Amino acid sequence: MDMNEKIEILKSEFQKLSKDGQAWVQHLSVEMNKQEWFQKLPPFIQNIPPLQLYVALVVLFLTMFFFFIVRFFNRKTSNTILLTGLSGSGKTVLFYQLRDGSAHQGTVTSMEPNEGSFVLHSETTKKGKVKPVHLVDVPGHSRLQTKLDDFLPQAAGVVFVVDAVEFLPKSRAVSEYLYDILTKASVVKKNIPVLILCNKVDKVTAHTKEFIRKQLEKEIDKLRASRNVVSEADVSNEFTLGIPGETFAFSHCRNKVTVAEASGGTGEITQLELFIREHVKP
Ligand SMILES: Nc1nc2c(ncn2[C@@H]2O[C@H](COP(=O)(O)OP(=O)(O)OP(=O)(O)O)[C@@H](O)[C@H]2O)c(=O)[nH]1
Ligand SMILES: [Mg+2]
Prior knowledge:
The protein is an alpha/beta fold. The protein has nine helices and six strands.
């Protein structure tokens, strides 16, 4: 073996050694990381056999998945729409328009919720199977407004009917009732959509929906200030409305709040039907 050959062999040996060394150092640092990570876990977990740990994780995941599915379908399958609003705003007339396509002249102040499950009158000519809507007309009389709480947990949507003709003299009472609905835990937590329906637009003296929306936002802003003072004293489960420090707007609500027009008297209820079918799929 000449000198050159010896040098070559030495070189390759050295290269091999340094490669092994590098790999060994890498392996060591990974192992150390693993151990450090493992040591950070609480001792009782370190003592659990890995198989049990995996089973527990799988069970936890499946349970979460199950709850998610149940919630998802519960919400999607609800077909209840509530008609609310002050007495005389025209809820019962709207109820009959939706069901029969006629106004049933001569309705009186309702004393009981008016309930029914049916396919909307305008859809009766449609071919194929249409999912019925469960409609509840909750009386507007102040002593009967509490009936609303019985139906809210199952609601897919709430229609808040406002008399657009007699709006100004009643605007304070209208705002108070709407404020109560928008701050209810069952509405906020379940993100129930609310449609403010300005009714009786067949009359020339009816206010526009834009005017009514602005007035309501102003009134609710005032109410918010006065009610916040009260609710600091007695702890209630109600939610506060809007963004603190900003003038109230319906767009600040977590749930969707929209405004539309209708005339139960003349049967102009397209926007109402669209809202219903947006939240109760046919
Ligand atoms: N001009 C006009 N009048 C209407 C309209 N809808 C309802 N009305 C009248 O408003 C009055 C009250 O209507 P209702 O449907 O009984 O009101 P409600 O909201 O059910 O009232 P409560 O049952 O007391 O909560 C009736 O005299 C109706 O004829 C409408 O679109 N246009
Ligand atoms: Mg009624």
